[in-house]
Specification:
The chain is α+β, with helices and mostly antiparallel strands. The strands form 5 sheets. A 7-stranded mixed beta sheet has the order 7-6-5-2-1-9-8, with helices on both faces. Strands 3-4 form a two-stranded antiparallel ribbon. It is globular.
């Protein structure tokens, strides 16, 4: 942060820059405290309804921004500059929404509000899957911005207040920052009472190395901020692992969705409900259908036809405890492979190899613990 301020304001004395940094951290901390206080006593359903209402209020402002910029995707710096130049959102409620989430919501709106609902069974397979040795060029997003709906209990995260929560939604945005000429994946995650965001720097290496480098940069940034102000909590190993889990789940979802033979299908419940509403005459039935129509699913279902065998369920239960005991019959981790096909096997397509058991079915257990990372 000090380096960024020095680059942005080279003529400002160092002491003034540090004071500005301290003020920012204090305001940031107060903002988190106010958010935590504001949601006390509010139910999950109330929070969801309020969030939908506020997000709907932003759409006219998003349209103005889209028209002013000819629908061109903006980097984070450009986005903030344009908001100030056009004086958008002045006086509008910013309930539960900060500038980084605003950036994610705008891109989500700009690219058609596409949603992918990941099934719990596929999420379990992801736990036994690694992303090592996956070249970065295989990370091709289905859209420049989209939302992943995460099953309950899959991605745990600890808030600044020390509360354990499970992430419900992730908005993924692929963008290029002209200022430093780098490509990023912006990961904005949300549950009913907490919001956070991270960035993965997309370099020229393998996917898992980009993830590791981004976490390392975040840890260094957090340490500098803490040393300068004393305001921020330590970025410890738990936080690093949680962020790595979020990054890796996001990357695995992208690789699966864009791979060959993926279990992805589009559903639009509004079509059938609109037809029912047109035929309905009773007032009570119409109101019920109108409520259902307002919450109708329009999304891609990912992995929702996958059924886990009893054997797989045992396997994933062991993974949740963090430790495998390998036997002569051992588990092969899930992974991605460039599959040859076509005339003389001259073409390639990305396929997902599911985790599976290998070896004789009733062989003895070898008591060598192996931690899956």
């Amino acid at each position: 942060m000090k380096d960024i301020l020095e680059r942005l304001f080279p003529d400002v004395p160092t002491e003034d820059r540090l004071k500005a940094l301290e003020s920012y951290c204090v305001a940031n901390k107060k903002g988190r405290e106010l958010l935590a206080e504001s949601v006390k006593g509010i139910s999950h359903k109330d929070f969801e309804e309020a969030h939908k209402m506020v997000t709907k209020l932003y759409e006219p402002e998003f349209l103005k921004l889209k028209e002013a910029t000819d629908g061109v995707q903006l980097g984070m710096g450009e986005f903030h500059t344009e908001l100030n130049r056009l004086k958008l959102f002045n006086g509008m409620p910013l309930m539960t929404v900060g500038m980084n989430e605003m950036f994610a919501l705008y891109n989500f709106f700009l690219y058609g509000s596409k949603i992918y609902s990941i099934s719990h069974n596929l999420s379990m397979r992801f736990k036994a899957t690694n992303i090592k040795s996956v070249p970065i060029e295989l990370l091709k997003l289905p859209f420049k911005s989209f939302q992943l709906n995460i099953p309950e209990g899959v991605l745990k995260y600890q808030t600044y207040e020390g509360k354990d929560i499970f992430i419900k939604e992730i908005i993924v945005t692929d963008f290029y920052e002209k200022e430093n000429q780098k490509r990023y994946l912006h990961i904005n995650h949300r549950t009913y009472d907490d919001i956070g965001y991270f960035k993965i720097t997309i370099g020229e290496d393998e996917v898992h190395k980009c993830v590791d480098e981004s976490i390392k940069s975040m840890a260094e940034f957090a340490e500098k901020e803490r040393e300068a102000t004393g305001q921020e909590p330590e970025f410890n190993e738990l936080h690093k692992q949680e962020i790595k889990d979020i990054f890796e789940f996001t990357v695995k979802s992208i690789l699966y969705i864009t791979g060959a033979d993926a279990d992805v299908r589009w559903v639009d419940e509004s079509l059938g409900l609109t037809s029912q509403l047109a035929r309905a005459k009773a007032r009570g039935k119409r109101k019920k259908l109108e409520r259902r129509l307002a919450n109708a699913k329009k999304m891609y279902l990912v992995g929702h036809t996958i059924i886990l065998s009893r054997e797989e369920k045992v396997m994933y239960r062991g993974l949740e405890q963090g430790l495998w005991k390998l036997s002569y019959r051992f588990i092969v981790q899930g992974h991605w492979r460039q599959q040859a096909y076509g005339e003389k096997n001259s073409l390639r397509k990305l396929i997902f190899i599911e985790p599976f058991w290998k070896g004789p079915k009733f062989s003895d257990v070898v008591n060598n613990p192996h931690l899956i990372k």
